[in-house]
Design a protein that fits this description.
Elements lengths: L3 H4 L5 E5 L1 H11 L2 H11 L1 E5 L7 H12 L10 H9 L48
Parallel strand pairs: 1-2
Helix pairs in contact: 2-3
């Protein structure tokens, strides 16, 4: 709830979540009254569906019929993308792949392989620099 997009009244924000996620949001807001004030102040709305995760079919229907959304860009992880594919909700699929991973170690603390050589913080001394081409 402290994300800058949620705090900007000129940006319309829709949070799609499950009933469990909704309960956690209300708990983090402090009370239902605080939640309603936040929604009014920040142009925020909530879509609750599904059991353990949001029902994407219901969400897409809500976006189309209630918010008049005709084009939607989804940037998501594998679980959401797999669900969108399984439910045949994608018209177009754009895949961006990055060869460089951030951080020297993985989440489990193992060294991460790198695909780019280390970059020196300082340029090499002039005697080690490549000679200019004639």
């Amino acid at each position: 709830l402290s994300h800058p997009a949620v705090q900007c009244p000129s940006t319309r924000v829709l949070i799609a979540t499950s009933p469990h996620g909704c309960a956690r949001l209300l708990q983090s807001a402090g009370s239902e009254l605080c939640w309603r004030r936040l929604c009014a102040r920040c142009n925020l709305s909530l879509h609750v569906s599904g059991h353990h995760s949001p029902d994407l079919s219901a969400l897409m229907l809500h976006l189309r019929t209630n918010l008049n959304v005709r084009i939607l860009h989804v940037s998501a992880g594998g679980n959401v993308l797999a669900q969108l594919v399984q439910e045949r909700m994608l018209d177009e699929w754009v895949v961006t792949r990055s060869g460089q991973l951030c951080g020297a170690v993985t989440a489990s603390g193992l060294p991460r392989p790198c695909m780019f050589p280390p970059v020196a913080a300082h340029p090499p001394p002039p005697e080690q620099a490549a000679a200019p081409l004639p």
